[in-house]
Amino acid sequence: MKRGWYARQVFPRLVQWSMGQAGFIPLRQSLLSQASGEVLEIGFGTGANFKFYPSQLHSLTAIDPNPGMIPLARSLQAETMIPVHLALALAEALPFPPSSFDTVVSTMTLCSVPLPSKALQELLRVVRPGGRFLF
Predict the structure, then answer these.
(1) pLDDT, tens digit, for every residue of 94-132?
(2) DSSP label at residue 48
(3) Containing domain of residue 17, as a range?
(4) Strand partners, 39
(5) Is the distance from CB of 102 to CB of 128 less than 8 angstroms?
(6) Structural domains in the chain (count)
(7) pTM, entire model
(8) CATH number of the domain that 12 lies in?
């Protein structure tokens, strides 16, 4: 997951600006209100989704492959009412056992995953039977 200067410094701020636009707010509210239980978010980016999760979640684990996103996401962690565990990981190789999560969330992420079919296989592997994949 070694990244260059652009990926660590410039790209995270471009994502923060574009994903913070007002038009995304109702979409985030509608989608993330459906999350429940133990939740995994794939590609947390700047953490723009965090404040829209229901406060009654059991847990929120969020992964991203870009270490440059972590400082921005940490600043938004403070706006949530639930603890968020941030981790560096690839969607194509999730470091979790099968059936670990009740809900898996991926918003505006799969378009930037090098192997989206492998990532989808991994998402299905870690979601519990009867769980939800929100995208």
Answers:
(1) 999 999 999 999 998 888 899 999 999 999 999 999 999
(2) T
(3) 5-134
(4) 60, 103
(5) yes
(6) 1
(7) 0.83
(8) 3.40.50.150
